[in-house]
Amino acid sequence: MAKGGFFGKILKVNLSESKVTTSPLPDDFIRDYLGGRGIGGRILYGENPPRVDPYSPDNRFILFTSPAMGTIAPCCVKYSLVTKSPLSDTILMSLAGGFFGPTLKRTGYDGLVIWGNAPKPVYLQILDQKVEILDAQHLWGKDTIETQEILQSSMGRETKIACIGPGGENLVRFASIFSESHTLGRGGGGAIMGSKNLKAIAVQGTQRVPLAEEGAFEKYIREVVNLKFKKSEKAKAFGKYGTPGVLAIVNTQGMLPTRNYQQGVFEGATTIDGQAVKEASIRHESCFRCPVACRAYTRVESGEYAGSESEGPEYETLFALGSNLGNANLASIIAANKLCTRYGVDTISTGNVIGFVMECFEKGILSLKDTEGMELKFGNHQVLLPLIEKVSFRKGIGGILAEGAKRAAIRLGHGAKNYAMEVKGLEMSGYDPRGAMGMAIEYATAPRGGCHQRGLIVQETFGAPPYVDRFNTKGKGALVKSQQDEVAIQDALGFCVFVSRGDPMGIPEFAEMFSLATGIPATVADLLKAGERIFSIERLYNLREGFTGKDDYLPKRFLEQPLTDGPSKGRVVDLEKLLRDYYQQRGWNEEGEIKPEKLEELGLKDLATVKG
């Protein structure tokens, strides 16, 4: 057994039988997959039946922590959800910060594996080693804020709750899971909880996380890591503006998605950028043991949205509910963000499906009769709140949009698929790939679909040093591969991506902390190999589910329609050329399959024999 970093126990819950058991955490899982995202992916690959329906009782719902989580390590807060997505049918890995992950770790369980469907609404209560499946019929129908307040009123404020709202209960395919206002956002994890009649997971933990070299670990944090935070200009910038600070940069680059990705420059950017959010902020909060405190809370003081208050909005919400809809009204974005939190739906997908339906309306595919009299035109912020409610409760046109842009486009027909900005069914995020060739590769190949987080090249999107020609296709395959592998390490170890990637922490610091926490010696090279292995087992999962290289696509808009304004004007994506280079760097064949020699190198050859 490993000496530390984990308690060595996985909690397993069969909701169909209302049965709770435990199983040991294998040492080789820690060595080969590190934690969180990695171990969760390995468990899903081993336990999910091939081609399982996401809403099947057999689909595993996995929450997993990491070796330094719950210790004094700064910014180690990102616990992982791993399951099969009801939106994309791919593997789904989502992360959330805050306090839930460290509290779950301190219960003495390293992670949860949940399957089955409860016959009636329930919630899972974990008080250190005491686990109960309890009736939740009094919570069903409540929003995420009400649910947390009700449970904390009876259990105490120290209890941390991860729960769903009406979006999850109604199986909105992009429903999210909320703890405080922290979100397991993308891909429909909330719908999986809803399908299992699992309203919430409530945790209290007092256990001390075991560390192999506790003295050396804490000394390293105090003398090395904390010092790097104090010197980091990046950490200071995030503390001032948070993620909204990048909106002006992306707009200046000419790659801020505007009016459903028809444009890359938004004329109203200054009304919704980092400075505008800062001026609307009423306080800042931090996650567990985070010295940055990047999370702003905003309030609308006057006008039709007066009194609205929400966390953020973060950059992705500002783009999705702002520029992507031609909406320059920050107050409406704050109000819409709060409603998405209450109802439990992902803001990126919500903004995308609204942008999609607005373009369909303006192109004549939908009429006022179809929209129940709503003028779904870009810039009309007054339809935001009604549409979010319709989606969350599957009312009227909201029932179509709740299926996601890809399925909605098929339902509407008449060329609507040309306006669905998705990859593998997951709606795309806040960077137009015509302005960044590495981003084009990332969208096409990210395991969960049109996602930016697994391989964001900050040199392209933000112009961060060292300089990279964002329009050049040469070398982008290697660059994206290396970034995806490094992010897999950060995700698996639970470190917030906004304060890593080399500043103030990077792979050398992660290797040292992992070694001191677990007692398993790990070099930078060892972690990089683990990162490649984690990304590869997610690819193996998708291949087993029937995905091929043909599913590494981008919407035609990015391949055929040049941007018409801004610094990225005239650009399109040569995806075939980019993927050819990327596949070669990955050790994949032309069909996007992992070559046998690469599987052998990563120790995945035996796993790959499990076919769908």
Sum this structure up briefly.
38% of the residues lie in helices and 13% in strands. It is of the alpha+beta class and 612 residues long.
Query: CATH class of the largest domain, please?
Result: Alpha Beta
The fraction of residues assigned to DSSP E strands is: 5-15%
Shape: globular
Helix content: 25-40%
Structure description:
Helix 7 (214-231) packs antiparallel against helix 20 (507-518) and helix 19 crosses helix 23. Strands 2-1-6-3-4-5 form a 6-stranded mixed beta sheet, with helices on both faces. A 4-stranded mixed beta sheet has the order 8-7-12-9. It has 3 domains: 9-204, Aldehyde ferredoxin oxidoreductase, N-terminal domain (Aldehyde Ferredoxin Oxidoreductase,  A, domain 1, 4-Layer Sandwich), CATH 3.60.9; 232-423, Orthogonal Bundle (Aldehyde Ferredoxin Oxidoreductase Protein, subunit A, domain 2), CATH 1.10.569.10; 433-609, Aldehyde Ferredoxin Oxidoreductase Protein, subunit A, domain 3 (Orthogonal Bundle). It is built from 24 helices and 17 strands. The longest helix has 21 residues, at 524-544. With 612 residues, it is α+β, with helices and mostly antiparallel strands. Strand 7 (122-127) and strand 8 form a beta hairpin. The two termini are 33 Å apart. The chain is globular and about 60 Å long.
